[in-house]
């Protein structure tokens, strides 16, 4: 695909995160135009100044959604999942049937999205994508997999890191990737509480807890080692770290976190069944 246009239908938190990541990245083939569609004029004006680039056009409202889709080779869906049917009704007249659909909607399945085109990629990402350090997993329809998987990975990778995953694993990924930041934030809050309890000023405790989590993640990513191996290297025999770790095991923290992922995945699966 060359000289292509992207329409982003629903350019809120996630749509803007993906769009600004693309704007900051360099890859070939690069889009020649990105049309960002919202519902309200206010957001549209804000977007134009936020995503300051010659590539960006902004528009709002049903009629302009339709126009944007008629010009688009790729449609990125960034509206809320419950809006999908309405947005589809607005634009169905402009769908050519061979456009590539990239959906950011949690829950909406490739089968449901196929009413728009046989070429569908379903992306699950998370809020850190706003800062270029998000995680994204991507599933494809059979048609899209062979034709567009390279292009989709180039478009999504700039949010941080993108990996392919079969659609059957999407509920698990929704839990780990989508909800994961909230689970990490609870752990971070607890580290801050502990620091403050022992007399650290709040600002120091907060900065320290965030840097500890960032640095720990970097060690795992850069060494490729199992977390348990890195953890054992921190434990001096008879020392402070092993003492703290045993308290965490007594409290069932490990099981608590793993079961939180299980519960979130179960809830994600139950949403799909209800429809
Ligand atoms: N937030 C997360 O952590 C997260 C994580 C993973 C996946 N997701 C998925 O990402 C998707 C978007 O979530 P979000 O948090 O980015 O939501 P959001 O910020 O509320 O964005 C939704 C956008 O859709 C626009 N919109 C509403 N109706 C429209 C229409 N008829 N035509 C065009 N645009 C329309 C809204 O415009 P106005 O503001 O002008 O009304 C808004 O900009 C959801 O499907 C969610 O499942 C979110
Ligand atoms: C998730 O669902 C499975 C199957 O229904 C069930 O066995 C399991 O206990 C559930 N997990 C949680 C954390 O509720």
Distance between the termini: 35 Å
Radius of gyration from the alpha-carbon trace, in angstroms: 21 Å
Total DSSP E strands: 8
Mean pLDDT across the residues is 96
Given the C-alpha coordinates, what overall shape results?
elongated
What is the helix content? 40-55%
* Pattern of helices and strands: EHEHEHEHEHEEHEHHHHH
Q: What is the structural class? A: alpha/beta
Counted by DSSP, the helix tally is 11
Can you list the ligands bound to this structure?
NADP nicotinamide-adenine-dinucleotide phosphate, 2-acetamido-2-deoxy-beta-D-glucopyranose
How would you describe this protein?
- The structure is a single chain.
- The protein is an alpha/beta fold and 275 residues long.
- It has 11 helices and 8 strands.
- The chain has helices spanning 13-24, 41-50, 62-71, 84-91, 110-113, 142-156, 170-197, 202-223, 227-234, 240-250, 253-274, and strands at residues 5-9, 33-38, 56-60, 74-77, 100-103, 119-124, 134-140, 160-164.
- The chain has an 8-stranded mixed beta sheet, with helices on both faces.
- Helix 1 (13-24) links the parallel strand 1 (5-9) and strand 2.
- It starts with a strand and ends with a helix.
- The mean pLDDT is 96.
- Bound molecules: NADP nicotinamide-adenine-dinucleotide phosphate and 2-acetamido-2-deoxy-beta-D-glucopyranose (NAG).
- Residues 259, 262-263, 266 line the site of 2-acetamido-2-deoxy-beta-D-glucopyranose.
């Amino acid at each position: 695909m060359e000289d292509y246009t992207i329409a982003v239908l629903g350019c809120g938190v996630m749509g803007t995160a993906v769009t600004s990541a693309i704007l900051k990245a360099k890859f070939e083939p690069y889009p020649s135009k990105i049309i960002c569609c919202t519902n309200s004029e206010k957001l549209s004006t804000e977007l134009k100044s936020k995503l300051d680039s010659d590539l960006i056009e902004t528009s709002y409202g049903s009629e302009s959604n339709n126009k944007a889709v008629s010009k688009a080779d790729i449609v990125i869906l960034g509206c809320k999942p419950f809006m999908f049917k309405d947005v589809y009704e607005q634009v169905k007249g402009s769908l050519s049937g061979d456009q590539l659909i990239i959906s950011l909607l949690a829950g909406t399945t490739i089968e449901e999205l196929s009413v728009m085109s046989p070429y569908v990629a379903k992306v699950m990402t998370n809020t850190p994508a706003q800062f270029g350090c998000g995680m994204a997993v991507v599933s494809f329809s059979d048609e899209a997999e062979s034709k567009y998987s390279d292009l989709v990975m180039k478009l999504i990778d700039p949010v941080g890191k993108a990996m392919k995953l079969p659609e059957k694993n999407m509920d698990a990924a929704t839990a780990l990737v989508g909800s994961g930041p909230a689970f990490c934030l609870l752990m971070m809050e607890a580290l801050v509480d502990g620091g403050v309890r022992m007399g650290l000023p709040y600002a120091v405790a907060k900065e320290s807890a965030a840097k500890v989590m960032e640095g720990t993640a970097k060690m795992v990513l850069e060494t490729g080692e199992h977390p348990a191996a890195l953890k054992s290297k921190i434990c001096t025999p008879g020392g402070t770290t092993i003492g703290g770790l045993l308290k965490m095991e007594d409290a069932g923290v490990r099981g608590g976190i793993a079961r939180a992922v299980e519960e979130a995945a179960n809830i994600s699966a139950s949403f799909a069944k209800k429809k």
